[in-house]
Design goal:
about 425 residues, alpha+beta, Butyryl-Coa Dehydrogenase, subunit A, domain 1, Butyryl-CoA Dehydrogenase, subunit A, domain 2, four-stranded mixed beta sheet, four-stranded antiparallel beta sheet, 8 strands, about 10% strand, globular, oxidoreductase, Acyl-CoA_Oxase/DH_mid-dom_sf, oxidoreductase activity, acting on the CH-CH group of donors
Length: about 425
Amino acid sequence: MTSINLADRAVDLGEWARTVPDADDQFARAVREWLDENLVGEFADLTGRGGPGSEHEFFDQRLAWDRHLARAGWTCLGWPVRYGGRGATLEQRIIFHQEYARANAPARVNHLGEELLGPTLIEYGTEEQKQRFLPGIVDVTELWAQGYSEPGAGSDLAGVSTTAALDDAGERWILNGQKVWTSLAHVAQWCFVIARTEKGSSRHHGLSFLLVPIEQPGVTVRPIQQLTGTSEFNEVFFDDAVTDADLIVGEPGDGWTVAMGLLQFERGVSTLGQQVGFEREWRNLAEIARGNGAVHNPEIASRLTRAWIGLTVMRANAQRTLAGDIVSGTAAASVSKLLWANWHRDLGELAMAIVGAPSLVGPTHTAEGAANDITDPDRVELDEWQRLFLFTRADTIYGGSNEVQRNIIAERVLGLPREARQ
């Protein structure tokens, strides 16, 4: 794969927006036209592919699509020009995500690198780290996984027990421990890991943020089969795994600060594009309700109406947060997570009620004529609404459970006492 010359991408869209009339409208048209012209040919079958519960679909083709986007300059839009980005304004980044969602373009394979690690390195990393890792994210030649959750520390990030210690020569970190629910680790080359580097430390003290290569003898990745029959999540075991001493982001023991900074990026402008996808799901579901008569059921009609109101509230909250009209930070991110996670879970339940009895029955045979088997991910066949229902059961857990988000709001916004710990 030929790498991209980052200088070729040095187009400062922020400056362009200040000098060209109606720049945002022109930008939207440019995105829309490019997607129309390029979601064809070898990429035509990718529309709508790879979403929640379908991450296994057409992975190699979606990787090729991401690299196609990169060659055209449509990755890492908001990054500074000097790091391969395009200096796009906040409004243009929102426009891109919205147009991408409206085009029903395939789910991206590089979200963790582009939206999470890249901005974190730009904010907290050394210049050497930026030069080493950012180009591979821009051109989608290196994929990343997130090593946060552990069996004993899921949403409670401060409770991690994975350890890392420098070797006697001070040249390498040696890691031992286990991570779990690690998205896409089975296809990634690197993992950013929160590990305890100060012996005897507890909670958020003594943690460090390390960049660890996955493809080494000391790292074992084991897929976890989900309700949908697919395996986006993984267990990752570190058994004397190593990484270079300089691949620590921030100072030793400052990992909590870096990790919290990354979580702010996780709930950024891409959430508005996510909501366009939510709106599409709602409209498709409403159409089914009209077609099968379910909409004439007063309860179904009421739930559809409440879902639309909830979607409107989500959009308004996201726009106010991004515009700085309300207090930003961890608490604002927690409010956003609570809104969309519960809304999406409820939509999955509503889908089952609208579809009715057929929602309980899967196809009896696969293309090969074998019986449908939920224990075999290569033979599971779920329709769109079954997949939505099953996957959204996890929406209120991953990325920080409802309980943790409510504790953050209670303690950091309302000033309530900390929850008692056993």
